[in-house]
Amino acid sequence: MDKWIWQNEQEIDYITIPHWREQGVIIAFTARQGGVSSPPYQSLNMALHVGDQAELVWANRKRLAGIWDLSLEQMVCCQQIHGSQVACVNSEMAGLGAKDYGTSIPGVDALTTDQTGIILATFYADCLPIFYFDPRQRVVGIAHSGWKGTMGRIAVKAVNTMVQVYGSKVEDLEVFIGPGIGPCCFQIQADLGQKVCAAFPEFDVIMYRNSEIFWDLSLTNRKILEQIGIEPDKILECGLCTSCNTDRFFSYRRENGKTGRMMAAIGLQQWGRYSG
Hints:
Elements: E1 5-9, E2 12-16, H1 18-21, E3 25-30, H2 54-66, E4 75-77, E5 86-88, E6 110-113, E7 119-124, E8 128-134, E9 139-145, H3 147-151, H4 154-166, E10 174-177, E11 187-188, H5 190-199, E12 206-209, E13 212-215, H6 217-227, E14 235-237, E15 262-268
Parallel strand pairs: 4-7, 5-6, 10-14
Antiparallel strand pairs: 1-2, 2-3, 3-15, 6-9, 7-15, 8-9, 8-10, 11-13, 12-13
């Protein structure tokens, strides 16, 4: 699987994967610059639920959607309650959560679709975005996986949905684990460390530095995906830590909870099925 790159369009810096884009996949993980929001949300805050002015968030979202000649009416968002539920999105759901957080798909942290012209959108400030693409069945997905989602194995539940609903085969799936808080910064308490070790006894994902405990969320998600049959060379990890890089990213932990959110966006271009 190809590497990820930084791209700049519409004054927005975002991470994307050329290999997926060549196959008609809309994919982006935005940085924090290039928008119109004011402090402490400056400047490309993409979230409606953090206290920013809705009109400014709409403007930021429109700027990103414009890269693909799409509108907010084609964006779909979910509540993101740090759970492990997955929704299958169709065209009738277009626009949910795009202008009003209250209309977001409730109780859900992951979205999947096989329909073109829809942007699946989730929001981040340290949690991990996990992007999915099935090039054979033409299915995409996105999962919001913080520590609770990781414990709930939302990464696997998104795969199961793609297999059961859309007919995907695990061996065909490609996965990109985007930026999130890294093991350099994700310090946890001893009781959570014990729960992690109990939940993933076969994985070496906890690190000890003096008396402090750190958890590698990205590696944990990679391991549980490999465990269900995703081929290791089809899992790409970004490796950038949002907490270390607040010049580029919002970080809930580093900025004490008062900050904006990046958007993870994925969809299928409207020009039709890829025949390669």
